[in-house]
Amino acid sequence: MKWMQFPREIFIGENLLKSVPDILQKLLNRNRCLILSGEKTFKIAGEYLEKKLKEKFDVIKFIVKKSDYDEILNIKKNIADNNVFIVAVGGGKVIDVAKVLAKELRVEFISVPTCASHDGISSSFASIFKNGMPVSIRAKSPYAIIADLNVLKNAPYKLTASGCGDLLAKFSAIADWKLARRIKNENFSEYASNLAIMAAKTVVKYRKKIKSLETIGIKKLIKALVASGISISIANSSRPASGAEHKVAHALDIIKPDNDILHGEKVSVATIFFLYLHNKDWRMIKEIMEELKCPTNIYDLGIEKNDFVNAVLKARRIKPERYTILEHKNLDRHEIEKICKETGIF
Question: What mean pLDDT is reported for the chain?
Fold first, then answer.
């Protein structure tokens, strides 16, 4: 039996934050609300939302500082009971913590993204650190998504570019998945694959409107991110959205843990590398990334050559069960450096 989790309700529009309490009253039969937010995102939207929710609910609040399992345990032990629903106001870190916590408490959580930087907005998988290692774990899909376009448009543009990079990476991820089907006879979902590619093509089609922060562009971007997350739920695996490029991004998380490089930024650069390996049109994707101001080289990321090469080498040990072009080619250091020079990553 295959079990798929999807958001029950999706609200996308302008000035939606003020309507959140009314929406939640109609959707949920609970009086106690746990708000999770980040230090920055609380100031952007969480503080306002806390004030509005207090008009209708008993509200408790936690500021999420890092997306690791210890943080989840800390929040869990400070909640007297599980008769709550969770409102996650923030980016990927906050939403990932919320979806794992919601699964463990067996409660609903509402995803209120403050930026369009990732496709975890709607998926039932979470990326967190556990025992010092980044892991992707099965969690809980949001009960509802409430995306306020005004909040998303006003987010720092690098967060929006990060979301674009995360979506363009689907071209590489799907190529890896097809390779695994051919070489390892891995289960493959045409529907999930097509949905992920459609999300990536949305960025290509609407890139000018996204770059100029037009409402229609940000609306298309957030819908594409939601669709990518749903493709994960359809596949019951992060396969449609995550291939070798995500392995390298997670390896960089370990190699360079204390930096401000966004997930989608790391993925962007790695995508160029692996599209080259797959003999795909990496030049076209690179041009689109440059147009969207996504990072395309190590200088944009602010890392050293050895950091990227070591990340590619280390990535083989990240999710070793996931077969990608990385395992298929088994590159050495010299070959990695050569590809980086040819693609302009160095």
Answer: 94
Q: Which whole-number Å values give the CA distances from 199 to 175, 227, 291, 302, in the listed order? A: 15, 6, 18, 28
- pTM of the predicted protein model: 0.94
Q: Single out the residue of 154, 174, 163, 66 nearest to residue 120, CA to CA.
A: 163
- Of 104, 89, 73, 100, nearest to 33 by C-alpha is 89
Query: What are the structure tokens assigned to 5, written together?
Result: 């989790």
Look at strands 58-63 and 32-37 and give their pairing: parallel
Residues 134-166 pLDDT 10s? 788 888 999 999 999 999 999 999 999 999 999
Tokens of 296: 């395309």
Q: Above 70 in pLDDT, residue 2? A: no
What structural domains does the chain harbor? 9-153 (3.40.50.1970), 158-343 (1.20.1090.10)
Tell me the CA distances in angstroms from 284 to 172, 196, 276, 281, one per residue in order.
13, 19, 11, 6
Contact between 138 and 204 under an 8 Å Cβ cutoff? The reply is no
Q: Quick one: tokens of 208?
A: 């000018």
- 319-324: Cβ within 8 A, 24+ apart: 319/136, 319/247, 322/180, 322/239, 322/243, 322/247, 323/176, 323/179, 323/180, 323/183, 323/184, 323/186, 324/176, 324/179, 324/180, 324/243, 324/244, 324/247, 324/274
